[in-house]
Amino acid sequence: MLLIAALFVGAAGAAAQTPAQPALPPEVAASLNKMAASLTEAETALQQLSGFEDELGGLRAKVEDVLDQTSQTAEALRPQLAAVKSQIEKLGPPPAKDAPPEAPEMAAERARLTALASAYDGAIKSSEVTWVRARQLIERITVLRHSLFTKNLLERLPSPLLPQIWRDIVSDSPAVRHRFNAWVVDWSYWAARKKAELLLLIVSAFFLYVILKFAVTRWTNRRRLRAEPPHPTFFERALSVSWVAPLRALPAVAASLLFYGGLDALELLYNPWGRAAAGILKGTLVFVAVSALLYAVLAPRAPQWRLVSLADRPARRVARLLSAITAVYALDGALTETSRAFFVPLALSVVQSFASSVAFASLLIGLLLTRSHGRTRRELKSPSHVTSRAGSRYLCGSSRLASSSRHCWAMWHWRALPPSNSC
User: Fold this and answer.
1) Cβ atoms within 10 A of the Cβ of 281, count?
2) What is the largest CA-CA distance in the chain?
3) In 50, 99, 184, 284, which residue has its Cα 20 to 30 A from 24's Cα atom?
4) What phi and psi, each to the nearest 5 degrees, are found at residue 272?
């Protein structure tokens, strides 16, 4: 009995000496629980509101609030975790098994700080998991809203010329700016840890572009090639375009692919940056390829290799305008993918589509106002020339094709486009 009593007293004393496990501050724990509960409630509500645009918009705003709160909570806890780890480091490493034990006060302080660091780390990971759940839920809401957008494509909605759209933009801008800044800070943190590799990648892509550009410029310079009669035939000019255009696009394409692949290899293209980078890469490749083809066909500086019958001045103007139209298309596509990646509100997307439509219409008007002069007297001496009427047909056909493509594109991307009264 005495032995049992002694063991009981010793166990009680050991339990009394064990420090209580420190817990998180009450406001932090309450915030984490509230965010998790709000997200669970939103996930449940999404199953019942999949067919209502207004309710989906309100639900998305609620999830975006959870997204902001999780970012703020994690940002607030990281400095505290770093401070606790710094205090643990100042205590020095714990004594080895065969070394004399450290003082009871120091052992108790080490245990308290270790438990507190574990609690902070768990809270940060919990907020990060909630942040990922919120992002996935926003993606689901975005997909549902896009499907509703496709179903109600011709529905009359507020115009970007009305004040309501701009009021929505002003009210949504702070939240969008805060989320974007949080993503930039997070990406900068991981990029700074691979600063040397990232700098090497940038320098490599730059020098690859410069070297290929210099070589391709020398290989594809056709200004003085067969400038005097006999000029190249139509088939010779078409054959020249078939290899000049890909070569001229090669420097920018190779540098872009190298830079994108390098970022992916460095694991810096995680969401949402991966989707945005893919959209930017696609837009870059489209612009580079189409611009190279345009300048190879129109040959503003080498009229003897021009594939269509245009004078020098209209050829330069048409090449610039068509390149600008391609740039607007590529930029709009890249911004659309970036907006979807960063969950930009619908009002900003409407204004973006409106701006791109206005820019496209202005460039198209400039293209239609271009006078399609025939070739000069010197150019007409070539036995393989094409009549000015063919050039006029080329301009008219290209304008109609661009107009039709733009109309379909605007109807697909701009939800605020009102239905036509003539249909």
Assistant:
1) 19
2) 124
3) 184
4) -90, 0
Q: Which residue do the tokens 């003082």 mark?
A: 103
CA distances from 363 to 45, 95, 185, 260, 371 (A): 46, 75, 38, 31, 15
- Sequence-ordered list of residues with C-beta below 8 angstroms from that of 18, at least 6 positions apart, any chain: none
Q: Report the C-alpha gap between 260 and 249 in whole angstroms.
A: 17
Tell the burial category of 199 from Cβ atoms under 10 Å away from its Cβ (0-12, 13-18, 19+).
exposed
Nearest CA among 315, 414, 328, 337 for reference residue 364: 328
H runs (alpha helix) in 152-266: 163-193, 195-219, 234-265
Which residue type sits at 105? E
What region, left, alpha or beta, does residue 311 occupy, with left being phi > 0 and alpha being psi -120 to 50 degrees? beta
pTM, two decimals, is 0.58
Cα–Cα nearest to 321, from 352, 356, 294: 294
Return all residues near 61 (Cβ < 8 A) that are at least 6 apart.
none
Report how far residue 168's alpha carbon sits from residue 416's, in angstroms, rounded to the nearest whole number: 14
Tokens of 269: 């293209």
The Cβ of residue 185 has, within 10 Å, a number of other Cβ atoms equal to: 11
Digits of tens for pLDDT over the chain (423 positions)? 333 344 334 444 444 344 444 556 677 777 777 777 776 777 666 665 554 555 666 777 778 778 778 888 888 888 888 888 888 888 888 777 777 777 888 888 888 888 888 888 888 888 888 888 888 888 787 777 777 666 655 555 556 677 777 887 788 788 778 878 888 888 998 899 899 999 999 999 999 999 999 999 988 888 777 767 888 888 988 998 999 999 999 999 999 999 999 999 998 998 788 889 999 999 999 999 999 999 999 988 888 888 888 888 889 999 999 999 999 999 999 998 888 778 777 778 778 888 999 999 999 999 888 876 644 444 444 444 443 344 444 444 455 445 544 544 444 444 333 333 333
The structural domains of the chain, with segments of one domain joined by +, span 19-95+102-152, 192-413
* Residues near 142 by beta carbon (within 8 Å), at least 6 away in sequence: 60, 340, 343
Nearest to 351, CA basis, from 176, 162, 174 = 162
For residue 230, is the peptide bond before it cis, meaning its omega torsion is within 30 degrees of 0? yes
C-alpha dihedral, 44 to 49 to 50 to 53, nearest 10°: -140
Among 180, 152, 393, 251, smallest CA distance to 259 is for 251
If DSSP codes are grouped into helix, strand and coil, which group holds residue 176? helix
DSSP letter for each residue of 357-371: HHHHHHHHHHHHT--
